């Protein structure tokens, strides 16, 4: 049989004090209003019986939950989960709990999650918004909720964000491949209007244009990338462009799909096709040959996200702390992007 949960009413009754007295003591508002003797009596009893306040009820009462939500497209992705782990530690050090969830880039699911978190009085939102979510983000900002966009942003909204300099980072990656001898480089990306994907494509376009090379771009729907359909699309792309001697993948999960296709076709890297990815993954170091990439500064991203969020949480006017942060990526050169 489950043990009965102790309430404030039970504590008040057992100690023969009022519910208000117990509430004041539990919420650290008793100093100067209630005697030290009663405060000690209640605190000792609470410790003895192991009473834990109902956080939801407490949040509804105070309007503060000490919870920050981290909403990303896929929390199982190594990039997002690594940042979540670092932020979780930083949040705890500052008296907050971090909860995280996946939106799957689905506007309806993201909208439902935000409403649920609003109902639970979540204090702050860190979000990688899906396409077409500008109005919802504007509504959150207009309502005064502490809010930071991450990985992508909306140019028309003046909302705090932390991103990588995606265009320049992609350009430098392509420059490395081109100067290493690759001349027909395909760019595999998502069919997306999100700022980070647009910027990465612009970086590729800029590089091939500058060096007078042909443009080979493949766009894959986000919902297809985890399915066999994505592999078939990449295979068709290779069949349609047999002269490709290089591939740059706009995300690490696209790169992993591409590597499977190349392996199944017995295409050797880098002898037949050079390979690079935007964003690192532990698989890339274990692969033979090791895969070159543009690595995102995970620790710096987590630190900057929490720095901005904590500033907003400490200031009732969150709009007064709007910060746009663009961090540099790190070029990690391994064996896959050098011609032998």
TrEMBL record:
SUPFAM superfamilies: lambda repressor-like DNA-binding domains, Periplasmic binding protein-like I
Keyword Transcription regulation set for record: yes
Chain segments annotated as coiled-coil in the UniProt record: none
UniProtKB keywords: DNA-binding, Transcription, Transcription regulation
Listed GO MF terms: DNA-binding transcription factor activity; transcription cis-regulatory region binding
Matching InterPro entries: HTH_LacI, LacI/GalR-like_sensor, Lambda_DNA-bd_dom_sf, Peripla_BP_I
Transcription regulation found in the keyword field: yes
Pfam assignment, any one: LacI
Domain HTH lacI-type, residue spans: 6-62
PANTHER family the UniProt entry points to: HTH-TYPE TRANSCRIPTIONAL REGULATOR GALS, LACI-RELATED TRANSCRIPTIONAL REPRESSOR
Protein name: LacI family transcriptional regulator
Phylogenetic lineage: Bacteria, Pseudomonadati, Bacteroidota, Cytophagia, Cytophagales
